[in-house]
Structure formats: structure tokens, C-alpha cells
Amino acid sequence: KEEQNVIFGTVGFAAPEQYQGAAEERSDVYGIGRMIGMMLEKGKKKSKELYRIYEQCVQPVPEKRFERGSDLRICLEFLLKGKKEKKRDENIHEYMDETIHLIINLNGQN
User: Fold this and answer.
1) What is the mean pLDDT of each run of 10 residues along the chain (110 residues)?
2) Residue 66 in 3-state DSSP?
3) How far is 17 from 48, CA to CA, in rounded Å?
4) pLDDT of residue 30
5) Which pLDDT score, from 0 to 100, does residue 64 have?
6) How many Å apart are CA 7 and CA 88, to the nearest integer?
């Protein structure tokens, strides 16, 4: 008997591992990253910080992405808060680096 796999996802938004039937939470992070990418393409203002988050989300290897959607949410919330409350003496780029590295280290990613 031949086994049939059903693949769910939208082309361009589905993570590479979904095509092998190996979807997981990081696959959803990939899809969210692709949506962020579309917003970056369509947007008039370019955000380096948001682009860095996008890059982290759409890594081809799942282990290099945010492990959980909640990790991605932390970075996005910080970015929003930082944009609203940004002071001249704060360095948002440094803090984003620290935040991303902290999340990666907490998840055991190298």
C-alpha cells in the first residue's frame, strides 16, 4: 500500500520542511517571517531591525530560526516599544543584538 502525504501551506510561505511533511512550530515562524518580508517590500520606510528579525525567521534550517512563536513575539514587541519610547541616548541596535543572542542562547542554538 502506497502512503500519501498531504501538504498544507501556501507556496512561498510554507517552510521548506513542510514539503517533507515535517512541520513544527518553527515552520509557523517561517511563514510569519515571509509575511514580514512582504511588509518590508511594500513599506515605504525600511527598518533594519525588522529586517534582522525577518532574516532570523526565514532561515532555511529550522534550528537557526526562533524556536517558538513567543520568542519572535518578544523581539517584535521590543521593536514596537523601542520605536515608541526611543530616546536619543539609547542604542536600539545593540539591544536588539543582545535580545536575539539571548533568545538563541536560551534555545540552545549556536
Assistant:
1) 61 85 90 89 81 94 92 86 56 63 49
2) coil
3) 27
4) 95
5) 95
6) 48
Whole-angstrom distance, CA of residue 49 vs CA of residue 75: 9
Of 20, 95, 108, residue with least CA distance to 64: 108
Cβ(58)–Cβ(34) under 8 Å? Answer: yes
Residue 19 backbone dihedrals phi, psi, to 5 degrees: -75, -10
Name the nearest CA neighbour of 49 among 17, 83, 90: 83
Supply the DSSP string of 5-63, one letter for each residue: ----S-TTTS-GGGGGT---HHHHHHHHHHHHHHHHHH-SS--HHHHHHHHHHT-SSGG
What's the pTM value of the predicted model, to 2 decimals?
A: 0.68
CA angle 28, 30, 33 (to 5 degrees): 110
CA-only gyration radius of the chain, Å: 16
Side-chain half-sphere CA neighbours of 48 within 13 A: 5
